[in-house]
Structure to design on (470 residues):
């Protein structure tokens, strides 16, 4: 299940009336939105949105019913269990084949402020200023220890740029930490703190 | 050795300003409260000066500073004694003898110490030496420290070098459990740095030796702007680190005097 689907499930289940609606769905063969609304004293739109979303997710089946009046839908339960199962590894950054060979260095006049740890050789945070005039905002990025060590060895502006892999090696870091390093590099590149030399 | 200066001329008068500021305070106090009160205030200020130099001696083990401290304490005492003669038309000959013999002794000693640069904070020499091999320009300043290399010395050897650097006023050492940080101080900056009036030493220019021998360098923007040209910052940091690595090597070979000779050869003015 992806995060967006899980978020929809989460949103539905967090409603105060969710358990009551599911109780009706489990105990009735089929039920309409107006019946649910009348039974639980909800607004019909609230009940309809809830049932419609469940139908879109495949938890309910909906059938159009034609009586004397205009057509409406009756909903019936299609599955007895709802399991939210998210593979967290799906959001793990997969470094592109060549990303570790990107040659980088600090950008000249980046305007960032680096705070150095007192006890060891690493950077603890980077402060960046964005915007102009009254819109100017300070953003402080706290770094993990591997990120801080990586940044400590980042070449200076005007110095010979080094590949990310070389800097990781100089900082004495394990290559398995590459995803968090790349995340930092991409963020600092976005804020124009790092120069990527192609 | 090239005498082409990389640093701008020193126009900092902080070092002279602090002792000279005693004079107007003495004048105003004398005017308002009388000559005796003025002398007492002056004596107190001179004693405060003596205390500061005693503190510098205790912090650095630089003996000439103890000499200055004793001189200032003596001068303060003489000023205090002088208050007893205010309003009388005579001064005891013992006072005159003590005053002139003291003046002669301390005056001679002071001139010797100043001329031989034994009282000189060597910050400018360090910055000149660091800038010497850097020919490229192009700025590239950053306030990040730069790792410059590794020395194969034990923490005790590095500590010994740090004590040497302090004793000869090359840099002020700060010790933590993992690091020895050496902060070069220029003449005139010693009051602010030692009294903690100019911020945290980590914001100043420093060279850090960690217990594994890793050396890193940070150059403060204020010091970088003291160079006439925007020297290639990366090279400048590497060069500053190398100056200290070389000094550490010379010291551990027992050739500390060569370090002093190297700095003296720059012939930088004694008050600069």
């Amino acid at each position: 299940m992806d995060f967006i689907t899980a978020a929809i499930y989460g949103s539905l289940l967090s409603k105060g009336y969710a358990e009551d609606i599911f109780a009706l769905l489990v105990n009735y063969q089929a039920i309409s939105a107006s019946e649910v609304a009348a039974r639980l004293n909800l607004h019909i739109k609230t009940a309809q949105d809830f049932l419609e979303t469940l139908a879109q997710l495949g938890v309910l089946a909906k059938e159009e019913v034609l009586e004397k009046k205009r057509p409406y839908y009756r909903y019936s339960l299609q599955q007895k269990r709802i399991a939210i199962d998210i593979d967290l590894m799906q959001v793990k950054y997969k470094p592109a084949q060549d990303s570790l060979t990107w040659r980088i260095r600090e950008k000249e006049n980046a305007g960032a402020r680096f705070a150095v740890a007192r006890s060891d050789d690493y950077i603890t945070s980077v402060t960046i200023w964005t915007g102009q005039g009254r819109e100017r905002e300070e953003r402080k990025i706290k770094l993990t220890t591997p990120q801080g060590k990586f940044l400590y060895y980042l070449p200076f502006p005007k110095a010979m740029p080094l590949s990310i892999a070389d800097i990781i090696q100089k900082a004495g870091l394990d290559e398995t930490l590459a995803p968090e390093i790349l995340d930092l590099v991409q963020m600092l590149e976005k804020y124009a703190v790092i120069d990527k030399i192609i | 050795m090239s005498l082409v200066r990389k640093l701008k001329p020193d126009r900092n008068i902080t070092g002279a300003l602090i002792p000279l500021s005693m004079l107007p305070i003495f004048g105003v106090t004398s005017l308002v409260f009388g000559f005796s009160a003025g002398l007492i205030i002056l004596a107190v200020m001179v004693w405060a000066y003596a205390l500061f130099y005693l503190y510098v001696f205790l912090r650095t083990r630089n003996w000439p500073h103890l000499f200055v401290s004793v001189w200032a304490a003596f001068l303060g005492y003489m000023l205090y004694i002088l208050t007893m003669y205010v309003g009388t038309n005579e001064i005891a000959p013992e006072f005159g003898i003590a005053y002139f013999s003291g003046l002669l002794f301390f005056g001679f000693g002071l001139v010797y110490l100043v001329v031989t640069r034994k009282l000189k904070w060597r910050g400018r020499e360090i910055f000149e030496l660091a800038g010497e091999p850097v020919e490229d320009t192009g700025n590239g300043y950053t306030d990040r420290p730069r790792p410059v290399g590794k020395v194969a010395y034990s923490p005790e050897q590095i500590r010994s070098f740090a004590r040497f650097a302090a004793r000869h006023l090359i840099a002020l050492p700060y010790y933590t459990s993992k690091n020895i940080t050496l902060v070069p101080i220029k003449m005139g900056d010693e009051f602010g740095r030692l009294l903690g009036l100019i911020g945290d030493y980590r914001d100043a220019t420093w060279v850090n030796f960690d217990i594994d021998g890793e050396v890193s360098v940070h150059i403060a923007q204020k010091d970088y702007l003291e160079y006439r040209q925007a020297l290639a910052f990366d090279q400048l940091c590497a060069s500053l680190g190398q100056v200290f690595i070389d000094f550490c090597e010379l010291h551990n070979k027992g050739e500390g005097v060569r370090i002093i000779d190297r700095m003296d050869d720059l012939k930088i003015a004694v008050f600069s």
Remarks:
- The longest strand of chain A covers residues 123-130.
- DSSP finds seven helices and nine strands in chain A.
- Chain A has a mean pLDDT of 89.
